[in-house]
Amino acid sequence: MNFDELTGKILFVDDEKQILNSIKRLFRKTRFEVIICDQPKEALMIIDKNPDLAAIISDQRMPEMDGAQFLTEARKRIPLASRLILTGYSDMDATLRSINDAHVHGFLSKPWEEQSLLETVSEAVLRYNAITENERLQKELKKSNEELKELNATLDERVKKRTEEVIKLNSELEQGFLHVVKSMGAMAAIHNDSWSSHSKTVANLVGEIGKRMSFGKSEIFQLKLAAYLHDIGEVGISKKIIQKPTIERTPEERKKFESHVIWGETLIEGIPNAPNVSRFIRHHHEKFDGSGFPDQLQEKEIPLESRIIAVVDTYDRFLNFETIGETSTPAGALQKIKDMTPEYFDPDVVFHLDSLLKETGEMETPDYEVELDLYQLREGYIIAHDLKTDSGVTLLGKGKILTKELLEKIRKRGQQDRITGRVSIFKRSIDSMRS
Predict the structure, then answer these.
(1) Torsion sign, CA atoms 93, 96, 98, 104
(2) How do strand 423-426 and strand 369-372 relate by DSSP bridges?
(3) 192: three-class secondary structure by DSSP
(4) What is the domain count for the chain?
(5) Measuring CA to CA, which residue among 413, 422, 323, 332 is closest to residue 381?
(6) Is 366 exposed, middle or buried (0-12, 13-18, 19+ CB in 10 A)?
(7) Does the model's pTM come out above 0.85?
(8) Cβ atoms < 10 Å from Cβ of 384
(9) Residue 110 sits in the same domain as residue 173
C-alpha cells in the first residue's frame, strides 16, 4: 500500500514546536491533512471542532498534561480515532501502562525513523477507516433488515427484491472486512518482507490443526485470522530489532519487542467480526510453564487458539528463519518443538501437529525448500522456484546455483525493480555449504 493512497485528518500534539515543524515537513508528501498543536488544552478544543480526526498522536512528557491524560480526554470526545503515544526509551514503563489505561493503540519512539513513523501513522488511519466504514455498512444493514421485517408479511416481488439487497449488503460487509484484513497485511509486508509468506503458512497450518481438534467453522475462521495477523504489532517495532537474534537484543530492545503483542491486540480489538482474535494475538507468546509474555499465563490459562499459534509459529520459524538458529527439515523442526515440550508448548497441540505432518507426507519430503530474505542468500545456494521482480521480470530460473556474480546481479536489479517476499532455496544446498 502506498502512502499517497490514504487520506485522513491527523492531529499531532507536542510541547516542542521544533518537533511539530519536523513532522509537518515529513507529512507534506502524503495526502493526510496534518494539524499541529503545542498545548494539550488547546488541542482538546481542536478535537471538539474536528470530530472526523482519524488519528491523534501525542507526546508523553508535557508540562500541562501528560500524553496518557490528554489521550484519555480525547477518547471521551471522539472514541473511534486511533490514539498513539510519542515517547523515548526512558518512558517505556509509563507508555506500556498508558496502552491499557488510556486505551492507546500504540507508541512511537523518539527519535523516530521517518519510514517507521509514516508506516505506523498510516496503520492508525487505516484502522480508523476500517471501523468507520464498518459502522456505515452496519447502519445500512440494520436499516435494510428493519425494512425486510416490515415486508416479510407478504411474499411478493418486493420481498424478494429486498432480500436480494440484504444478501448483497451482507456480502459487501464481509468483503469489506476481508479487505481490511488484507490491507493490514499489506501494511505489515511493507515493514517486513517475510511477514506475508510466514503468516500465510502459519494460518494454513493452524486451520488444519483446528479441524483435527473439532473446531467449528466460526472458530476456525477466528483462529486462522489470529494466526495471519499474529505479528501485526511488529509494524511499530524497528526492523533492526526484529531482525536481531533474541540473544543479541539489549534489555530495552527485548522490552520493546515484547510489547508487539499488546500493540497487536489494540490494533485488532476494534475490528468487526472478530471478537476473540485480539485476545488470541495478545497471548501467542505465553509459554506452557508460565515463563512467557506478556501476562505469564500457564497451561489452560492460555487460550487454546494462542497455544496452537505458538506451536506452529515456532515450527515455521525453525524451518525458515536463520535469525533464531539454523534452518531445519520438517522432522528436525518438529523434534526441536518436542524437546521444548511441555515447558513451552501444549503436548496435545504438538501431538496434532506431529500427526498432521506425518499424514500429509511433509516429514518425507525428499527435497525440502526453505524461504530466505535477499540478504541471507549465499554462494552455492540453489534456487527452488523462478526468482522474479515485482514487475514480472524473471531474474533466475529454478535450479540455478548462486554465484558471486549472480548475487551482485540480484542486488543491483533489486535497486531498480523491487523484489518483495522471500526466495525459495533447496534445503540440501544450504546444508552442503555448511558441511
Answers:
(1) positive
(2) antiparallel
(3) coil
(4) 4
(5) 422
(6) exposed
(7) no
(8) 20
(9) no
